């Protein structure tokens, strides 16, 4: 048994641990989620050899966002809407600056220059700009009108439906109608023999089992964080912007860094940027719609600071990726911006 599976076994044992100390529980579940996420990152990286970098990146982003979606649902059920909103913005910022920064830096140290498919990057950033437009429109309506909270919530649900529709259309565009534009540099090797199919099925089973384990740990972690916030009067926004994105996206973060180190920069970008797209165009709308059925009004209105920080993250990442190549110094720049944003958020929250 490898070390990774030993650590996963430890994570399973951690599920049954429940100490009388809230802080201890939070630390235990936070640590327990890491090895499971890392193993998921490795599994999705291997899976990309069979399904291609585009589909592999989408798979990694989806699995990586699954615990965050679950944590968001549990948080809404506990009434922690500010933390959910901050976590969603924090995920975008974390993916676009921290994850991409580390990936580019590590990849750039090992490989002097890394090239990627500019068509993929441009299409992805178009979808991110759509998400930013939705945030700006909703913030403008909230700032320059006297609409009630109920009406703003109704508008948020309608906007959420539109964004989900566009996200689905984006998947159809990239995976089916124009998939030829997204496989220019992948060079997928066809795997057709029985041994490869058997290995692929085993990987799928492992991914499902690890995802279930991640879901259980996420629920326990969210409950512990809720108790921690109530007991020590901590800022939900700061926890949401820093802790939740890092823990919830640990799997995809590790996947992106591993892929960049292996010079699979296309998949690395697809994981990080694709995750931000999924958060903004799918996970956020789903949580808003879900809040309606929970009797909690979570609208699509974010603070001006959150919108500005998201805009900076998307803009800086765009400037880094517009030329189709990356270097380690560009990764250092993204990490520096992330550090400044988190420091600012610490004092603001």
TrEMBL record:
It is a multi-pass membrane protein. GO terms for biological process: intracellular calcium ion homeostasis. Gene3D superfamilies: NCX, central ion-binding region. It comes from the Bacteria. It is found in: Endomembrane system. Keywords: Antiport, Calcium, Calcium transport, Ion transport, Membrane, Transmembrane, Transmembrane helix, Transport. GO terms for molecular function: calcium:proton antiporter activity. InterPro entries: CaH_exchang, CAX-like, NaCa_Exmemb, NCX_ion-bd_dom_sf. Residues 27-175, 207-342 form the Sodium/calcium exchanger membrane region domain. The chain crosses the membrane at residues 5-21, 27-46, 58-81, 87-107, 119-139, 151-176, 201-218, 238-259, 271-294, 300-321, 328-348. GO terms for cellular component: endomembrane system; membrane. Belongs to the Ca(2+):cation antiporter (CaCA) (TC 2.A.19) family. Ca(+)/H(+) antiporter that extrudes calcium in exchange for external protons. This is Ca(2+)/H(+) antiporter. It comes from Clostridium colicanis DSM 13634.
């Amino acid at each position: 048994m490898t070390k990774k599976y030993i650590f996963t076994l430890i994570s399973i044992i951690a599920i049954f641990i429940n100490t009388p100390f809230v802080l201890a529980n939070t630390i235990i579940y936070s640590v327990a989620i890491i090895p499971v996420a890392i193993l998921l990152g490795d599994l999705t990286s291997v899976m990309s050899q069979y399904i291609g970098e585009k589909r592999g990146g989408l798979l990694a982003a989806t699995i990586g966002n699954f615990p965050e979606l679950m944590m968001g649902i549990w948080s809404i059920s506990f009434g922690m809407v500010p933390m959910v909103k901050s976590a969603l913005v924090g995920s975008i910022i974390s993916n676009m600056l921290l994850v991409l920064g580390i990936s580019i830096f590590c990849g750039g140290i090992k490989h002097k220059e890394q090239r990627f498919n500019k068509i993929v990057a441009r299409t992805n950033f178009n979808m991110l700009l759509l998400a930013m437009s939705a945030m700006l429109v909703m913030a403008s309506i909230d700032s320059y009108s006297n609409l009630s909270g109920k009406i703003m919530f109704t508008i948020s649900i309608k906007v959420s439906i539109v964004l989900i529709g566009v996200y689905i259309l984006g998947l159809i565009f990239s995976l089916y109608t124009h998939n030829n534009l997204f496989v220019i540099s992948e060079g997928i090797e066809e795997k057709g023999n029985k041994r490869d199919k058997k290995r692929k099925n085993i990987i799928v089973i492992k991914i499902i089992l690890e995802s279930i384990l991640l879901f259980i740990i996420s629920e326990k972690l969210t409950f512990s964080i809720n108790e921690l916030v109530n007991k020590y009067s901590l800022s939900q926004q700061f926890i949401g912007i820093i802790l939740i994105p890092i823990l919830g996206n640990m799997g995809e973060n590790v996947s992106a860094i591993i892929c960049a180190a292996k010079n699979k920069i296309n998949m690395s970008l697809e994981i990080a940027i694709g995750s931000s797209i999924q958060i903004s165009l799918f996970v956020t709308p789903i949580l808003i719609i879900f809040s309606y059925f929970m009797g909690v009004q979570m609208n699509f209105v974010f603070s001006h600071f959150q919108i500005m920080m998201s805009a900076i993250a998307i803009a800086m990442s765009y400037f880094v990726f517009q030329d189709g190549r990356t270097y380690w110094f560009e990764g250092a720049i993204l990490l520096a911006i992330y550090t400044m944003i988190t420091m600012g958020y610490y004092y603001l929250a």
